[in-house]
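Hypothesis: this fold can be encoded by more than one sequence.
Test: take the structure tokens below, design a sequence, compare later.
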């Protein structure tokens, strides 16, 4: 196996949890998550040779995963067929395991109702990324990140209250 491919598969194996989390936030359907996972891997592979700063690998993967997911949602036409890349590992589907937790399900239902940008910001916030990292990944100014987190948290709080009371 060529060194670049080996290095890429190693990075993919190490960071695949990010891809599963992003997919879980943007796609409710398992088939859509699987399709989007493949598209994210494809986009990562395309840009991997040109990656200059390998020290911020996690931020780069978040950015590609989020942007790919948002682009997929915005497309109205079918994405052209791409040959599937081999699976990096045979690990259990992280998204399926997370979806079994009832409290997590309530939070996920509330997050689904946010717009794409707020979903990204909340995901990164829940991943304990700094405002600077969130700014770098999303392209939103650091001060605006703080404002959007505060607003998104308030929206989530209201949505969770409604879910708890059976109003939604």
């Amino acid at each position: 196996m060529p060194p670049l491919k080996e290095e890429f598969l190693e990075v993919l194996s190490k960071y695949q949890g990010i891809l599963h989390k992003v997919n879980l936030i943007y796609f409710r359907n398992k088939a859509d998550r699987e399709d989007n996972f493949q598209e994210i891997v494809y986009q990562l592979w395309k840009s991997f040779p040109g990656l200059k700063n390998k020290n911020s690998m996690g931020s780069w993967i978040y950015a590609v995963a989020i942007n790919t997911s948002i682009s997929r949602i915005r497309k109205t036409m079918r994405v052209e067929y791409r040959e599937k890349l081999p699976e990096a590992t045979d690990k259990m589907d992280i998204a399926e395991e997370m979806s079994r937790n009832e409290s997590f399900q309530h939070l996920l239902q509330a997050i689904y109702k946010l717009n794409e940008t707020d979903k990204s910001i909340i995901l990164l916030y829940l991943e304990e990324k700094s405002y600077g990292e969130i700014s770098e990944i999303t392209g939103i100014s650091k001060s605006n990140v703080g404002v959007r987190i505060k607003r998104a948290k308030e929206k989530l709080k209201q949505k969770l209250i409604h879910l708890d009371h059976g109003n939604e």
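The chain has eight helices and no strands. Residues 106 and 164 are 8 Å apart (CA to CA).
Hypothesis status: open.
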